[in-house]
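Q: Predict the bound structure with protoporphyrin IX containing FE.
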Amino acid sequence: MFIEIALFCVVIALLFGYWNVNQIYAIWLKCNIPFDKGQFPYGNMKDVGEKMHIFELTNNLYKRMKKQAPVAGFHVLTNAAVVVTDLDVVKRILVSDSNLFMDRGIYRNEEDPLSGNLFNLDGPKYKEMHNKLMPLFSTEKIKLMFQSMEEFADRLSSYFFDFIEGRPTDLNLQDILARYSSDVMGTTFLGSECNSLRDETTELRRISKKYLGKGRERGLKYFFRNTFQETAKRIKMTETPKEVSDFFVRLVKSSIDNRDTTKPKKNNLIELLMSENTNEKSGSLTLHETSAHAYIFYVAGFETLTNTLAFCLYEISKTREIQEILRRQILQVFKHKADQASYDSINEIPYLDQVINETLRKHPPAPVLFRTATSDYQLPNTNMVIPMGTQIMIPVYAIHHDETIYTKPEAYNPDRFNKDNMKDGHACSFMPFSCGPRACIGSKFAMMHLKITLVNLLRKFRFSIGSKTPFPLKFDKKAAVLSADDIWLTVENLK
Ligand code: HEM
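A: Predicted complex:
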């Protein structure tokens, strides 16, 4: 009799579980939102990180559902999610109604000191930190960093000179640019003098290579933590392995302890933060807070800049005419070899902005933006409701490749961004750095870095596609930011 009762209970529990799971995946019927039905346990994420990148999932939904509704439903594991398919709704979420969508819904754990960084924070703590950190990214402060960044670009050119020894040589750009960007970001934001361009064995490079950016398991853990935050807390999941957090906290502490307080040298974040911290208005940050923000600046900048530079050099190598137009404009500003670049002079080359913008359009490093609905949200002029807690995805890649917005979107054409063509676009049709109050805090720094590097390289070298570069490029399905597997370019000295 006992066995029958036990079996009966198991069957009831299974039926209840089945009914419950079906209810979860049928939520979009109640909200009148068209959807792709998910399946337990992955929802619609089964192939993400293996057969497809998350941007491909959102791109497919965007293309299929755009004509039907302003949002399309799906599931991240068991969490309801929507892809926004209408630019006006994108603008509402990111800008006009952004107070209802400020959070990214990212799991944080007190035991992981780096998880309390600006990207992950939400609520009043986010606002407080944003107000403290924003002044560090003003044009005035960015200008202070110009000289040291120019020196890094010179080091990159010297590296190319030494490597190619006067003859056209194939180089794996991705790797070299990763080491270069790591040095720039490490020195600027961690206050630690780095030289992984020449020495691949540095600790910062080892940690970055081992832990940052890639991995399906890492991606799934990220979505698991965000979906099941209570469980993640109970089992003490952390975002960064202990080795990583210990390393970054140690690095930042040593930068603070060893900074030279006798000289007014403020060209790195730690020096700037320390001087802001002595200012009563800004209040001081703890070691863990400083480490968490310095860490996120390093991580957010390192891969986005590496990949933007790699894609840009790849595109202008594929279309040599564009490279020559750009070089001509650069050489008009820097007529003599000895002419020094300055913040103002690199901003006098309109075609440089066009080339960078077109690269960021075609290959947006952050191809999807994330938000969480903090209350139920009725979509204007519809009977559709996005329920509270829904994960919102803004499909930047899909928007940048929408042929109703950009004619022949797969073509690389910097003229899309000349003065005349820029006039009448929708505010959210081009958003590599996003829009609204949670847009990229480092965008001015990023543009300066990209310009300094491209000007420095194109004054000295000519680039063409190397024979080992696959055509078309293969995207890395496991990477957090948009990146290609292999970009080999042939580099030669300019006569
Ligand atoms: C080409 C380079 C870069 C691109 C394309 C880029 C793009 C983005 C995007 C799309 C976001 C998300 C905005 C949103 O969710 O609405 C973001 C956020 C962020 N980025 Fe960047 N980024 C770049 C470089 C940098 C650099 C160099 C830094 C640091 C110095 C940086 C620091 C951050 C931080 C801290 C956030 C979070 C901002 C917040 O939540 O308030 N990024 N970035």
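A: The chain has a mean pLDDT of 90.
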